[in-house]
Amino acid sequence: MQMKQYLDVLPEIQDALDHNKPVVALESTILSHGMPYPENVGFAAEVEKVVRAEGAIPATAALIGGRIKVGLSPAELETMCRAENVGKVSRRDMATYLAMKRNGATTVATTMICAAMAGVKVFATGGIGGVHRGGEVTMDISADLQELKQTSVAVVCAGAKQILDIGRTLEYLETMGVPVLGNGTSDFPAFYCRKSGFGVDYAAKDESEIASIIKTKWDLGLEGGVLIGNPIPEEYALDYDYMEGVINEALAEADEKGVRGKDITPFLLARIKEITNGVSFASNVQLAYNNARVAARIAKALCKLS
Ligand code: PSU
Ligand code: MN
User: Fold this and answer.
1) Partners of 88 in the beta sheet?
2) What are phi and psi of 190, to 5 degrees?
3) 193: Cβ contacts below 8 Å, ≥ 6 apart
4) Is 291 close to ligand 1, i.e. is its CB under 6 Å away?
5) Antiparallel, parallel or unpaired: β 57-64 and 67-70
6) By the 8 A CB rule, do 285 and 44 touch?
7) Does residue 221 carry a pLDDT above 90?
8) Beta-strand (E) ranges in 55-185?
9) CA of 4 to the centre of ligand 2 (A)
10) Measured between alpha carbons, how far is 306 from 287 in angstroms, rounded to an integer?
11) Which of 49, 133, 185, 273 is packed most tightly, with the most Cβ within 10 A?
12) What is the Cα–Cα distance from 88 to 106, expressed in whole angstroms?
């Protein structure tokens, strides 16, 4: 296939894929545009360790020098963390960045595309993009949702941040035919908080149930993703009403400053970290480790089923 000419998969990852061993994709936008430097360097190394500790191989995706990278060297991870001249790349940006050889961090949508190209089935992120508050007027709906409709990768997330309209995000996923599973929960999580007040389609009891639903979907020829909501560990969860106040403050500032489009999410993430004095950042890091752990277990269970 033509696309392979753009793709570099690290040998360790290719070997695992060739031998039906578990691999977990990780995104780079969370590094370049979701976390500050140099804290993101420690996170990037640790999240890969968490995947390995579960017996899976980590595959962080990025666009570097005109190549699609699945699996990054420590130097390439550092490049993504420094984020100098590193753009935020969603589906619409991929061709431009590759042809112009610009460095780009992959969002959930793009990481799914890269993972699918390489043959990686499971991906761990922090939170997905979704329908923004007021999205029924602005039409600001993350391309992550369309990607979940069409690209066959299972995405483990801690739900969606309250910066989004979680109810409309779930409605959109329903329309697109994307199964939303809870990992041990019947409530779709709200990132920093274990519950959003909106239900999932099915509360799975564990990772092996999740793997069997994923396998069945794809066996049926129902292309597209599966979204797994994995709540933040209790000890790191923040109070819903407190976060609502923080987020409203950040949203008001974004509005005042006229921040729009692809810049909104990174702006809000940075402001939330500042307003909460870094408390939210510690939670963010921990929920991402937790997602990596669960994704590795799902990847292992899927390998056993195939
Ligand atoms: N939500 C978070 N942290 C993130 C993102 C979203 O809590 O880092 C990133 C992810 O890469 C996601 C992207 O795919 O933002 C969505 O951006 P947009 O809303 O512009 O589609
Ligand atoms: Mn948007």
Assistant:
1) 105
2) -115, 50
3) 162, 232, 237, 238, 239, 240, 243
4) no
5) antiparallel
6) no
7) yes
8) 57-64, 67-70, 86-89, 103-106, 122-124, 154-157, 180-183
9) 29
10) 29
11) 273
12) 6
User: What tokens appear for 179 in the block?
Assistant: 């199964």
Give the residue whose CA is nearest to atom 21 of ligand 1.
142
Q: Which of 121, 161, 217, 273 is catalytic?
A: 161
CATH number of domain containing 182 = 3.40.1790.10
Determine if ligand 1 sits within 6 Å of the CB of residue 108. yes
- Decide if 198 contacts 207 (C-beta within 8 A): no
**For the chain, what is the mean pLDDT?**
97
Shortest CA distance to 120 belongs to which of 220, 9, 221, 24? 24
CA distances from 164 to 55, 110, 140, 201 (A): 34, 20, 10, 19
Compute, in angstroms, the gap from residue 217 CA to the centroid of ligand 1: 26
Rounded CA gap, 199 and 250, in Å? 26
Is 49 one of the catalytic residues? Answer: no
Domain count across the chain: 1
**pLDDT given for residue 223 in this prediction:** 98
Rg for the chain, CA atoms, rounded: 18
Residue 4: pLDDT band (50, 70, 90) is: confident
Instruction: Supply 67's token pair.
Output: 């190549």
Containing domain of residue 46, as a range?
A: 2-305
27 is a catalytic site residue: yes
27 vs 22, 35, 162, CA distance in Å?
17, 12, 21
- Atom nearest to 27 CA in ligand 1: 11
* Per-residue DSSP letter, 231: P
What integer pLDDT is reported at residue 1 of this predicted model?
A: 65
Ligand with the closest atom to the CA of 109? 1
Contact 163, 248 (CB under 8 A): no
CB of 110 closer than 6 angstroms to any ligand 1 atom: no
